[in-house]
Amino acid sequence: MKIYVVSGLGADFKVLEKIQFPKHHEVVFIDWLIPEQNEEFLDYVERMAEKIDDSEPFYLLGYSFGGILVQEINKLKPARKVVILGSIRSDKEKSVLIKTGQITRIPKLLPVRLFNEKTTSIYSMFRKFFDPKNPKILQYFQVRDPYYLKWSIEKISDWKFDENPDVIQILGDKDIVFPIKNCRPDYIIKGGTHLFPATKSKEVSNILKGVFD
């Protein structure tokens, strides 16, 4: 069976490269598309979902923003199982910072030029606060198209979703982006920051072996 995987905001698949997926399944990574001008989120989800062959059973796995995306894809093309890493199951699990962005509409007001190459490099450096011991932090955030970054932050801020209890949530207990205090995860990665798929890959791999039976 195929496992379709979507990585996080601005992240390529290096953050997931150490995870050992069950060998009897085929892993298919879905690259981020660049949003069209003023594209609605659900239209974008439909375009991403085109890459999934639903003529046979499949699994979905998403990391961070990718976790939000696969839950939306699941409404269009239902998967056998949906697993999210370092992500949330509903808008009720958003952090205070993200909720503030939703209320104030600040992400929408920010100019696209703020997300240029120089700024995104600084942004990536800032991510060191999420996992200061990880020397590869800059290598994980390679999708730096300014419009894509601004658009994605807006959509995360605005996202509204009723929790699907069947979605399997794996979360790090040191995650700042999506704090565990707002969630009831099925699996907790001890000492895991938002980058736990890279830093705690053995623990994640063992969990996935049981989930993707």
Describe this structure in a few short sentences:
The chain is built from eight helices and six strands. The chain has helices at 41-49, 65-76, 96-104, 106-109, 117-126, 146-158, 196-199, 201-211, and strands at 2-6, 26-29, 58-63, 81-85, 168-172, 187-189. Strands 2-1-3-4-5-6 form a six-stranded parallel β-sheet, with helices on both faces.
CATH classification class: Alpha Beta
Number of strands: 6
Largest sheet: 6 strands, parallel
- General shape: globular
Distance linking N and C termini: 10 Å
Overall structural domain count: 1
String of helices and strands = EEHEHEHHHHEEHH
- Could you tell me the CATH topology label: Rossmann fold
Percent in helix: 25-40%
Protein name: Alpha/beta hydrolase
Organism: Chryseobacterium cheonjiense
Keywords: Hydrolase
GO molecular function, one term: hydrolase activity
Task: Please describe what this structure looks like.
InterPro entries: AB_hydrolase_fold. Keywords: Hydrolase. It comes from Chryseobacterium cheonjiense. By secondary structure, the chain is of the alpha/beta class. It has helices at residues 41-49, 65-76, 96-104, 106-109, 117-126, 146-158, 196-199, 201-211; strands at 2-6, 26-29, 58-63, 81-85, 168-172, 187-189. It has one domain (2-212): 3-Layer(aba) Sandwich (Rossmann fold), CATH 3.40.50. It contains 8 helices and 6 strands. A 6-stranded parallel β-sheet has the order 2-1-3-4-5-6, sandwiched between helices. Helix 2 (65-76) links the parallel strand 3 (58-63) and strand 4. Helix 1 packs across helix 2 and helix 3 packs across helix 6 (146-158). The longest helix is centred in the last third of the chain and has 13 residues, at 146-158.
